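FIELD: query
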Amino acid sequence: MSKSIKIEYWTYPEGKDFEGIEEFVNEIDKHYFLMVSKKRTDALGGGLYDLIIEISEDISLLELAKSYVEDGIKLYIGYQAKEIYNSIKSLFDKNKELKPSVQQISVQFKDCKVIFYEVYKNGIEENFEEAISVIINFAAANKKLFKKITEIHLPVFNHKDYYNICNYRVKLNVDENILDFVKEDYHNFWGIRTKKKYYVYNVKNNKLKRKKFYSQENYDKLFSKAFKNGKLSNAKRKY
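FIELD: result
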């Protein structure tokens, strides 16, 4: 697996692109193979100029865990993330009128994908390195289980959704009924997937329970199924 970054964002059909996007691309592309995908939409609401970033790394978390535990080496992925954020901040500073943000960052290691959700401004950046450190320690202590893990989602919330159809879920793009998000959210619950099972990890208590959690994609499927079955006959999604 090669080191790469894919960045997606939406603009209006006639909307302008980011000022300084060429400089941003050149800066990032020094260390990673970079792909930038700009999509145009005439839909109203949020999501415009919000970046969804996918980073592919050429090392596994188990390999990183071995080096981290045995040698105590500096967590290079944390350094790389800071470098990427420095470039993003520079881009955003030049485009404040567009109100840009980072919506989601996923890091595809050789063995599993870690998906960070931006639940408050700069939330991923503030919690990225600490969260990766926790994941590495978890991997080192649970090697047999970790070999089966395909995805880690953070944070997830033990909070009833607007329609009362699920318990554990990520922050929703629509219908979100949590009013305030704080730093502690990143250190409460994470969602973990293997090929066949779902788990919720209590970070503070270091406890893993067999519980279903919902990503946005899975939540949308759950909503559609409940609607078709008549359980949400009067539902109107709040965008």
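FIELD: remark
Helices lie at 21-28, 61-71, 76-93, 123-141, 143-146, 216-228.
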